[in-house]
Amino acid sequence: MRIAFFGGTFDPPHTGHLELARHILKQGKTDRILFVPACDPPHKLGQKISSFADRCAMLELLVADDPDIIISNIERRAALKPSYSVKILKLLEKEFPDDTLQLLIGGDSLEALHTWHKAKELVARYEIICYPRKGYEVDRESLLKHWTAKEINILLRTVLQMPFFDISSTSVRNNIKDKTVTKNIKTNILKYIKDKGLYL
User: Fold this and answer.
1) Distances in Å between the alpha carbon of 194 and those of 24, 174, 200?
2) Residue 71 in domain
């Protein structure tokens, strides 16, 4: 079975995350999506984020009706600081020894992938599935600055052609804070947020 690692802060998880996962499953690019909320995301050190427990609880609500989308709390269990993707993926290999792990990232992350911890090892070891992000065009010319021709062929092989899900957790948080009606978050998650007093 192919399992696509989908890491992120998910603060909060929204319908864009869910529709993206469903679309990739429907395209047959993987067999299961594994949401992996970051415990200590290296790109957000020093920023205020909701507790790991709250973000996991909201993810559970998000994917409750989708058996092929699962959640892992491995980042909390591993207690890695900071939590680099390559380290988490290696730990997941032990949990899923009979499966093939993939890495699911957006076009913005692919553009900056060369800055990731042990980026070349990531590309050599795992299939990178890249979904489009508005404002980021993935092309060979831009990748040539940081990757070999062989690596570029690997990276471009799994760049998906699909709709943009132009929703961000930041905009959802702002809508909640401003008490603006948003259609980008499930009702049960919105209730959880209000009950917990998050983002207010």
Assistant:
1) 31, 14, 9
2) yes
